[in-house]
Amino acid sequence: MAQLVKVQDYISRYQIDLARYPTQFVRLKKGQWERVKHQWETGEDFNKNWEHIDAEEEQQVEKTKFSFLKKFFPSKKAAEDIEEIVVSTEIIDEDAIPEEETTLFFEPNIVYNPQTLDELKRMFMDQFFHFQMKWASSTLREKSYVDPKYMRDTLLRTLLQTLPDNYLVFYYPILRVKKAPIELEIIIITPVECLCISVLEEEDQAVYIGSSERFWVKKISKYEKKTLNPLIRLNRMETLVKQLFEQEGIEMPIRKVLLSRNGYIDYPTSVYGCQIVDKRKYTEWIQQLKRTASPLKHMQIRAAQSLLKTVQTTSFNRDIWNVEKKEEN
Question: Beta strands 207-209 and 215-220: pairing type?
């Protein structure tokens, strides 16, 4: 599962310590998957030993419980059903990570007994997706209001659940450039490159006729209408990311992707430096991204940090959040 580093202008745990959380994410996910998989295989009662801990209760969790969970972190043999990832030692020494009393826990809440391992894996990944949103919208002291649309966002869920652990995802982050907020689209930082993705998804089966002009033609059945050339915003995103990388001395190739899962894109010639992925090529494209054996890289972490330095963040102190909730009740 790819790691959700930033969503919009939400406070993110990765902003606090980007060197720690990618590693902690992998350890936590693998440990809990092995635990629930073992219980399913041995026929243990899920509800007997499992307790779902909500993020709101994290400040009341004792340090001893975290120590208890650590023994369930994976051994050298990884589960076959959940991807294995090698974390580069050039980033961080796992043994040097101090325990956190108030780290966000994840314990799957198994509400029924899955009949197959695939069904169990799907349930686990769906619940872990909710956990990822908590990491991408809260810290120990702060929290952001999350738009419910992201919990229903099929593209976000697909990217996170399909791509490897060593991919860092920025989902429509808002950057502040010269005191002005600029909303980008999707940025995925892999160990070897940075993907700038612009999404072109409106009506199902729409056909987009591309050109170098300011407007493209969108055809739906027998009807035609003009739509703004999506390459304009994609080129703008690439330029901004490239400038941030250059400022920090980051050497990483940037590749542009124009994506449409439910439509077709016809462009008369090839677009330099841009990959066009429509409904015909989407499955092949996502499978190619999925295949990677490279560990997290130091340059990859630096690239993500350069973006996090510039992001805009809107959040609230947890005490204020809790007071507002009590007033609503």
Answer: antiparallel
User: Is 54 buried (19+), middle (13-18) or exposed (0-12) by CB count in 10 A?
Assistant: exposed
β-pair partners for 209? 217, 266
Q: Report yes or no: 260 and 279 within 8 Å, Cβ to Cβ.
A: yes
Average pLDDT, the chain: 80
Asked whether 77 and 83 are in contact (CB, 8 A), the reply is no
**Rounded Cα gap, residues 231 and 182, in angstroms:** 17
Parallel/antiparallel/unpaired status of strands 142-143 and 316-317? antiparallel
Dihedrals phi, psi of 77, to nearest 5 degrees = -90, 115
Neighbours of 129 (CB within 10 A): 16
Burial class (CB in 10 A: 0-12, 13-18, 19+), 300: buried
pLDDT band at 136 (very low <50, low <70, confident <90, very high): very high
The structure's pTM equals: 0.80
Secondary element (H or E) of residue 122:
helix 117-135
- The C-alpha atoms of residue 166 and residue 210 are separated, in whole angstroms, by 33
Residue with tokens 């998804």: 201
* Better pLDDT: 140 or 200: 200
